[in-house]
């Protein structure tokens, strides 16, 4: 059976270089460096580049019922043109209450989009990151 190749894998590229070269606005660069330090502190993991544009913290190995498996960061973000994508949420119903009072954001399928860091409550962000990591490590084990 042909396995789908997970295109988002951890690389050894410099996170700092990526932010300095790829992030288009001063504000977004500032937010990115702030998020970098914040997520490292909250998660306890060093930042790593995943694929071309995702900054991830920690990792877990997943296997779906379909047999598809791969590695993914426990938490992360990506400073994209339209918004900063935050990968800090399980998307589960039982975790939706954690988004109450989170601030100004839009919801994607597996991520939260914010325009700028000032739009959200960082205490709530810390809780989201922590709960998501606990959930993923509980489900997939620690790596």
Describe the structure.
- The chain has 143 residues and is an alpha+beta fold.
- The chain has one domain: Aspartate Aminotransferase, domain 1 (Alpha-Beta Complex), CATH 3.90.1150.
- It contains three helices and eight strands.
- It has a six-stranded antiparallel beta sheet. The chain has a two-stranded antiparallel sheet with strand order 3-4.
- Helix 2 packs across helix 3.
- The radius of gyration is 15 Å and the shape is globular.
- It starts with 14 loop residues before the first helix and ends with a helix.
Radius of gyration: 15 Å
Portion in helices: 25-40%
Biggest β-sheet strands, sense, barrel: 6 strands, antiparallel
Mean pLDDT: 92
| Number of helices in the DSSP assignment | 3
For the biggest β-sheet, the strand order reads 1-2-5-6-8-7
Shape: globular
CATH architecture: Alpha-Beta Complex
State the name of the first-level CATH class. Answer: Alpha Beta
CATH topology assignment: Aspartate Aminotransferase, domain 1
Helix and strand composition category: alpha+beta
Q: H/E element string?
A: HHEEEEEEEEH
The oligomeric status of these chains comes to: single chain
**Number of DSSP-assigned strands:** 8
Termini separation: 26 Å
- Domain count, please report it: 1
| Strand content bin | 15-25%
Which stretches are poorly predicted, pLDDT < 50 over at least 5 residues?
A: none
């Amino acid at each position: 059976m042909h396995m789908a190749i997970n295109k988002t894998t951890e690389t050894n590229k410099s996170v700092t270089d990526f932010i300095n070269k790829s992030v288009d606005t001063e504000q977004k660069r500032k937010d990115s460096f702030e998020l970098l330090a914040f997520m490292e502190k909250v998660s306890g993991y060093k930042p790593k580049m995943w694929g071309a544009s995702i900054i991830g913290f920690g990792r877990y190995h997943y296997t779906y019922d379909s047999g598809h498996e791969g590695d993914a960061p426990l938490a992360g973000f990506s400073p994209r043109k339209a918004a900063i994508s935050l990968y800090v949420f399980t998307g589960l119903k039982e975790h939706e209450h954690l988004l109450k009072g989170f601030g100004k954001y839009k919801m994607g399928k597996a991520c939260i989009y914010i325009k700028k860091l000032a739009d959200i409550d960082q205490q709530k962000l810390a809780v989201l990151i922590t709960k998501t990591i606990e959930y993923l490590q509980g489900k997939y084990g620690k790596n």
